[in-house]
Amino acid sequence: MSVDREPLLELFAYETNQLLELIEGILLKSEQNKTMSGDEINEVFRAMHSIKGSATMMEFKNIAACAHAAEDLFDFIRNKPDTDISLVFDCLFAAVDFMKSETEKAMKNMMPDGDEIGLVNAIREIHSELKSKTGKDTDAPVVRSYLGGKKAEAGRDEKKYVAKVFFEEDCQMENVRAFSLVYTLNNKCSELYYYPHDIEDDGGASAEYIRKNGFDIYFASHAESGELELIFKQTMLLKSYEIDRVDSFDKYLNRAGDKTRKQDTNASDMNRNADLNSFISVSSKKLDKLLDLVGEIVIAESMIAKHPDIRGIVSESFDKRMSHLGKLIEELQDNVMSIRMIPIAETLHKMNRIVRDMGKKLNKQVELIIRGAETEIDKNIVSTLSDPLMHIIRNCMDHGIENAAERAAAGKDRKGRIEISAGNTGGEVEISISDDGRGLDRSVIYKKAFDTGLIQKLESECTDREIFSCILKPGFSTKEKANEFSGRGVGLDVVTDCISRLGGVITIDSEQGKGATFTLHIPLTVAIVDGITVSVGESIYTIPAMSIREFFRPDKKSIVVDTNGNESVLVRDSCIPVVRLHNYFNTARHGDKKLTEGVLILAESNNKYLCLFADGLIGEQYVVTKPLPVFLNRYEVAEKGISGCTILGDGSISLILDVNSIVNRFVN
Amino acid sequence: MSRTDFYEEDTQACRYLTFLVDGTVFGIEIAGVSEIIQIMPITEVPEAPPYLKGVVNLRGKVLPVMDLRIKFGKPPAEYTDRTCIIVVVIQGVTVGLIVDGVCEVVFIPDEDIVPPPSLKAVSQNKYITGIGKVGDDVKLIVDCDEILKEEEINELKASDF
Asked: Which of A6-10, A384-388, B41-45 has the lowest mean pLDDT?
C-alpha cells in the first residue's frame, strides 16, 4: 500500500467506524421498539450509502458490495413504510460486523478480502422476501428522494399553500423568527420551501429582506387549515400573515429560481448539525504534541524560576508576576489534559450489542441499563476498557442471569436486568456492573479456591471480597462445561489483567439470589503516574508508587547472602530477594555499595515481593509518562523492565520501571 | 549558502552537512538532517549497545542518541563545547548522532563523488557510500540508513557479554 494512501485510509476507517456505530445504535434501538421511524430508516440508508461510496473509492469491493445490498434493502423499506422489518436485524448485524472486521483489516494494511457473497445473498433474499410480502411489484423505478419518510406519509389528501408573513416592526432578527416558524411548520408538512432561503445563516441581508418584503413560505400539508393557522397565530411577534390554498406552487418556486431550497430539516437533523458544529475532530497526534509542548513550557518555566541569576532578584512585583505565569501555565496544562478526556458513552453502548446477541443465543431476556455515559475518561483508557467490560457482561449474561423459568420460580421478573453505571469519584472513575441474577455462591467458590490452593485460610476467616476475588484468577471456573461464551476459565482474568495494566482495581460484591456487582476503579488518565524517584548511581529512575509497599534501610543482621552470592533480606519473617538496580541495569558503576548504605524498596506485584536496592530516595511526584522512542524497541529495553520515561522538572529524562516485569523475572 | 540558492529548486540535492569525528571529515546528505543541537545531559538506557549512549530531551521529545565515535570504532572522548548532536530523520525514525563538531554545508555534485575502495574486513567502510572531493579536500560520505541497520546490533550484542 502506498504511503500517500494512508491518510485517506485513516479517514476512511474513522468515518466508516463512526457510521457503523451509528447504524448499530439505530438497529439496536429499533429492534427493541420493534419499529423504525422514517428518520431512522433514512439515517441507515444514508450511512450505508456513504460507506458504499467511500469503500468503492478505496477499492474495498467486498465492503462496498455489502453496503450496497443493505442500501438497496433500506431504499425499499423507506418507500414501503409498512414493511415488516423484524426480519432484517440479524442479517444487518452480521453485515455491520463484517464491515467492521474488514475495515479493521484495512487499517492493518491488509487487503480486506473477507468473502461477502453469503451476506450479500442473505440480504438480497430478505429483500425479495419483503418484496413478495408486500405483494406489489416494486421493481418500477423508484424516485430517490431524500424527503424520504415524509414523502411516504404524505399523499392523497394533502393540500398546497402559499403564505406570506410579516413580523412586527423593530422586532429584530427576523430571519431567526422566520426559521423558528419554518421549524414548527415542518412537522406538519410533507414539502416545504421558503424564500429568502438563507435564514439559517447569520443573515443581516435576509432579515432586511423579510422586514421589507415579508417572508414567503410554500408548503404542502394534509393538516387542517385551522391547525395550520393556529401555528401562524402562535408565532411570536407576528404582525400579519396570509395563507392561500393553491393547486400548485411550482410557478412561485420558479419565480424564486435557484435561490429557493428544498427544506428537509427535521428535529434529528438539526440536532446533529448542532452537534457537528460544536465538535471538531482532531488527530490525537496533534493533541499529544500540544501536551508535549505544554509539558515543555512547564519545564522551561521551572528552569527559569530556578536560574541562579533570577533567584537573586529580590522584588515583590517580580515574584507576583512569576506566580501569575505559573498559575496560567497550570491552567493551560489542565485544559490540555481535559481535551484528551472523552465520554465513556460509546464504549458502554457497545455492550448493548453483546447483551442482544447473547440474549438471543442463550434465550434469556435481558434489559441493559446504562447510567453515567457522559462520564469522561482519558481516550487511551476508554479504548482499552471495552474488552474487560465485555467479559464482565458476558459473565453476567451467562452465569449471573438465570433463565426465564428459574427467574419466575424465584419470584423475579422474567426479564433480567444488567445495569452499568459510571461516575467520577475524585481522581478516578468508578464503573459498576450489576446484575439481578443468582449471585455468587460463596461456599462453592471457596471450596474450589481451597482445592486449587488459591486460598489457604478457613472459610470463616475470609471476607466476601477475598473469596469472590478468586473468580478473577486465571483458569478459575466453577462451571463444569465450557460453552461458546464463557466457562473456560479465561475471561475474568483478562479483566484483572487489563484493569491492573491501567492501574485500576476491581472489587466484587454479591448477595446470593439477588445478584452480583463488579466495580472497577480506574485512574482518570494513564498519562500521569504517581511516581517515586530514586537515584541509582548517576541515573534517576521513577518507580510507580502503586507497586511500592515500603522503603527501609536494612540493618546488618537482616541481610542474608547465600552461597552463590545472592542477597536477600528478612522483612517480618519472610525472606525477600534483593536486586541491586546498579547491577541490574548495568548502567551505573557502583556495584559494591553496602546494602546498609542505600535504601531498599519493597515492591509487590500479584502477591510476589522483591526488594530493589537504590542509592537514595529523591521524592514523590506526578509525572507524565512517555513511551520510549520506537528506535529502542529493537533492544530489549522493555523486556528488561522499563515501561517508559518521563521528563523531570529540570529537563532531564528519568526511566520508569515496570515493577511487574522485574518482579516476574526474579520471583517464581 | 547564499539566499538565492536557498530558493532554487531542489535546494537539498547534492548538499552535504560535514562534521568531524576523531579528526576525519564526514558528510551526510542534508535532506535527512532536521537540526543540530548542542550536547546535553544523556540518560543511559539499559540493554542498549555501547554506542547508543541513551536518550535526551529534545523539547519534550525523547530522542535516542548514538555516539559516532564509538559507532565508527574510534576511541571515546569527553564531550566538549564543540560536541554536537545532529538530529537526523531516517525512514521516519528520529535519531541524534553525537559528533565532535559540525563544519559546514558543502555542495558536492554527483560526478565529484567516487565510490569507496572495496576493501574487505574494514568494518568502518560499510557506513561510507562514497568519497566526495571538494577542492583539494576529501569528505567521506556517510550513509545514514546503514548506520541504523540492525545486523550491527547482533554483532555488538555478542561482544557485549
From this structure: A6-10
Bond prior to A141 in cis (omega within 30° of 0): no
| Chain-chain contact of A630 with B93 (C-beta, under 8 angstroms) | yes
With H, G, I as helix, E, B as strand and everything else as coil, classify residue A183: helix
The CATH number that applies at residue A113 is 1.20.120.160
Is the same domain home to A247 and A335? Answer: no
Grid cell, residue A39, equals 428518520
Yes or no, beta carbons of A632 and B45 under 8 Å apart = yes
| Cβ proximity of A209 and A135 under 8 Å | no
Structural domains counted in chain B: 1
| A98 shares a domain with A23 | yes
Do A631 and B95 make contact, defined as CB atoms within 8 angstroms?
yes
Locate the chain B residue with the closest alpha carbon to A648: B57
CA of B96 to nearest chain A CA: how many angstroms apart?
A: 11
How close A655 comes to chain B (CA, Å)?
8
Q: Where are the beta strands (DSSP E) in A12-158?
A: none
Q: Specify whether A579 is located in the same domain as A650.
A: yes
In which domain, by residue range, is B91 found? 3-150
B37 touches chain A (CB under 8 A): no
The better pLDDT of the pair B6, A625 is held by: A625
Q: Closest-CA residue in chain B for A537?
A: B44
Contact B43 A632 (CB under 8 A): no
Report CB contact under 8 Å: A539, B44. yes
pLDDT digits (tens, 9 = 90+) for B50-64: 888 999 988 778 899
Residue range A507-550, pLDDT digits in tens: 888 888 888 899 888 877 666 677 899 998 888 999 988 888 89
Q: Do B55 and A628 touch (CB under 8 A)?
A: yes
Q: Do B47 and A653 touch (CB under 8 A)?
A: no
Q: Determine whether the interchain pair A653/B94 forms a contact, defined as Cβ–Cβ distance below 8 Å.
A: no
- Name the nearest CA neighbour of A500 among A610, A349, A421, A384: A384
Give the A window 11-40 contacts with B, CB below 8 Å. Answer: none
User: Both A615 and A563 in a single domain?
Assistant: yes
Same-domain status, A371 and A508: yes
Cell 552535504 identifies what position? B16
Would you state the pLDDT for residue A335? Answer: 83
- Which chain B residue's Cα is nearest to A645? B62
Residue B97, pLDDT > 90, answer: yes
Q: Is residue A657 part of a domain?
A: yes
> What length is written for chain A?
668
| Sequence-ordered alpha helix ranges (H) in A463-604 | 464-468, 492-501, 581-585
Question: How far away is chain A from the Cα of B7, in angstroms, using its nearest Cα?
Answer: 26
Q: Which of residues 43-72 of B touch A (CB under 8 A)?
A: 43-49, 52, 55-57, 59-64
Q: How far apart are CA B53 and CA A71, in angstroms?
A: 58
- The residues, any chain, with a CB within 8 Å of residue A588's CB and separated by 6 or more, are A536, A537, A538, A539, A581, A582
**B158 contacts on A by Cβ (under 8 Å):** none
**Contact residues for A123 (Cβ-Cβ < 8 A; gap 6+):** A66, A69, A70, A72, A73, A91, A92, A95
Kindly state whether residues A502 and A566 are assigned to the same domain. no
Looking up residue A352, the CATH number of its domain turns out to be 3.30.565.10
Residues A560 and A656 in one domain: yes
Query: Domain ends where: A492, A523, A554?
Result: A523
Give the closest residue to A292 by CA, choosing from B62, B93, B37, B54.
B62
| Residues A161 and A220: beta-carbon distance below 8 Å | yes
Nearest-CA distance from B66 to chain A in Å? 11
Buried b (16+ CB within 10 A) or exposed e, A208-220: ebbbeebbbbbbb
Interface contact A296-B49, CB threshold 8 A? no
Domain final position from A248, A276, A304: A276
Domain residue limits at A74: 3-134
